[in-house]
Amino acid sequence: MATVYDLLTQHSTNVVHNTHYVTQSNKEWARNYHPIRNLVVHSYHGGDGLVHADFDSAFLGSYEDDGMRMDEPAMAPNKRIWRLECEADCELWFHTEVSNVVLAGWNRYPQVTQTSHTKPPRVENIPEEVDAMYTIKYRNERTVIAIGEMKRNLIQAAAWQAGNVLQVAGQKMLSRELRGYAVKYQSPQVYCFDGKTLLLLQFRADTPAKMMDADCPVDCWVLPREGSFYSLRYALYRLMAQGFRRFQGMCALPISVGGLTPRSRRFFNGVPVWHPNGVDQDEHPGGYVRSVNGTSGAVKWTHKGEDADVDNNEDNNDNDNEEHTPTLVKGKGKGKAKVAIPTKKSKKAKKAKKEESKEEDEDKDKDKEDTYPSID
Fold this sequence. Notes:
Elements lengths: L3 H5 L6 E4 L20 E3 L1 E3 L5 E3 L10 H7 L10 E4 L2 H17 L9 E6 L11 E9 L2 E10 L6 H5 L7 H16 L4 E5 L3 E7 L14 E7 L7 H20 L12 E2 L6 E2 L14 E5 L6 E5 L43 H18 L12
Parallel strand pairs: 1-5, 2-11, 8-9
Antiparallel strand pairs: 3-4, 6-7, 7-8, 9-10, 10-11, 12-13, 14-15
Helix pairs in contact: 3-6
Organism: Thermothielavioides terrestris
Protein name: 5b416913-7bfb-4542-81cd-45d912505e7b
């Protein structure tokens, strides 16, 4: 059977007929929000005629638990012909050909639920409903990791790719709406699909309130349904993975690494902010870096150039090498190597890595009990 990895490296192959009918966006409530004017565009046209994307400059990298999700079994959509005539057709295409495939990787490590046209968790007094919401349940509460809005041939890719939507009335209004949904759902990770283009946005806000600011930087990727180097499936996976890292950071308890305690965490990605000598910085001053425990999925700290965990370092003897964050399903699976899309490792190499990890776990973690919270 195919794996999630296999399908993320593939584009949808079903035939699509797009009528190119357009539905404008003119929601009155969206006028209360600033249009997006500080776009940081990470997609570009390559010499091969395809649209390429740089995800690593704005998203956190792949960790061991990404490998676990990539190895999950998945099935390609059934063969059929599509006709995109109304917005509902675009929505159905996206969920069938993209979202459902990606969600196969989020069935256990951890489990993500997608709902349509629902209000944000713990909020009942707003009339607006975004078209797609992806949530994680933790301690009997749901947290949004990403949201999506569907349109019909509305996105003018050239304007977004140029980083200036203020001069195009329809795009200016669309940007207001997408900012509004991000604020209402407390989700800096947002996508919009209109049948021909997938628009990914990330509001680089250190606090939820900062998403309201007109000058808030917004990462942007503009990927066509036809003519993109990366599949739309892979793009959505990276957006959701970033939302999951943000969620882990939101739930983390205070920690001390190398004798230092982070001052805060950035809202949009959950990364701790250190404050040595009165200056904020994302990198640990002592050279420690974050990684993920391949067995439990807990975020941990290691020292650059060393293979030992932080609690083996003389600067930190309080066994706080792992952040107390939501993790993977308790006691399930072993970590794999970092994900490298689109180049796939050979089965032989993956098998060798699996056997090596198994031996290391038996030696180092034979009697270790996972004490970190898991996703139900």
